[in-house]
């Protein structure tokens, strides 16, 4: 997969996405209602009397996507994801490769390549939001630069490690030059 740390220079903010993640939701169900998962066979799943609201399954994430188009480079896929999810048109020249690392090591062990892209308000061509026909329901969120490290460490905002790592990378490598 690819992920992209997006920084809007016009607004001095990071552009991230919020998405519902079923696995996160189910972890919260198990935490709040452990009895649901005890002694259950795989054919039946009991209804909850008081289901949790869907918001407990929402996480803040970097713009990202799977590498599933054989004819496209990682950079081309990253550009497509930025447009689809966040509404900014970026070119390959706008991307800076940060690093690759393993994600989902407990389940998939997949490799993810992280890119950095600076955008401005003039590069925004749509509201983003992903592709609903593919089951994506994405909310674009702006995190102001001056609040980004507080956000990174605030455990009340459920987020991926990629958000935390990339904000730290930005503060070490880009912010000193601003």
UniProtKB/TrEMBL annotation:
GO terms for biological process: nucleoside phosphate metabolic process; ribose phosphate metabolic process. InterPro entries: NDP_pyrophosphatase, NUDIX_hydrolase-like_dom_sf, NUDIX_hydrolase_dom. Its EC number is 3.6.1.45. It is found in: Cytoplasm. It catalyses: UDP-sugar + H2O = UMP + alpha-D-aldose 1-phosphate. Keywords: Cytoplasm, Hydrolase, Magnesium. The keyword Hydrolase applies. Residues 1-165 form the Nudix hydrolase domain. The keyword Cytoplasm applies. GO terms for cellular component: cytoplasm. Homodimer. Belongs to the Nudix hydrolase family. Hydrolyzes UDP-glucose to glucose 1-phosphate and UMP and ADP-ribose to ribose 5-phosphate and AMP. The physiological substrate is probably UDP-glucose. Poor activity on other substrates such as ADP-glucose, CDP-glucose, GDP-glucose and GDP-mannose. This is Uridine diphosphate glucose pyrophosphatase NUDT14. The gene is Nudt14.
């Amino acid at each position: 997969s690819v992920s992209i740390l997006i920084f809007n220079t016009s607004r001095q903010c990071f552009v991230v996405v919020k998405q519902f993640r079923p696995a996160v939701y189910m972890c919260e169900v198990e935490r709040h209602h452990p009895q649901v998962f005890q002694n259950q066979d795989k054919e039946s799943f009991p209804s909850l009397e008081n289901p949790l609201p869907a918001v407990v399954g929402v996480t803040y994430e970097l713009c990202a996507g799977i590498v599933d188009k054989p004819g496209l480079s990682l950079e081309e896929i990253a550009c497509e994801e930025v447009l689809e999810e966040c509404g900014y048109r970026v070119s390959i020249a706008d991307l800076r490769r940060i690093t690759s690392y393993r994600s989902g090591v407990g389940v998939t062990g997949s490799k993810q390549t992280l890119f950095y892209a600076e955008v401005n308000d003039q590069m925004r061509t749509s509201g983003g939001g992903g592709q609903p026909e593919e089951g994506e329901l994405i909310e674009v969120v702006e995190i102001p630069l001056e609040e980004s490290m507080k956000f990174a460490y605030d455990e009340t905002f459920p987020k991926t490690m990629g958000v935390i790592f990339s904000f730290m990378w930005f503060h070490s490598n880009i912010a000193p030059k601003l």
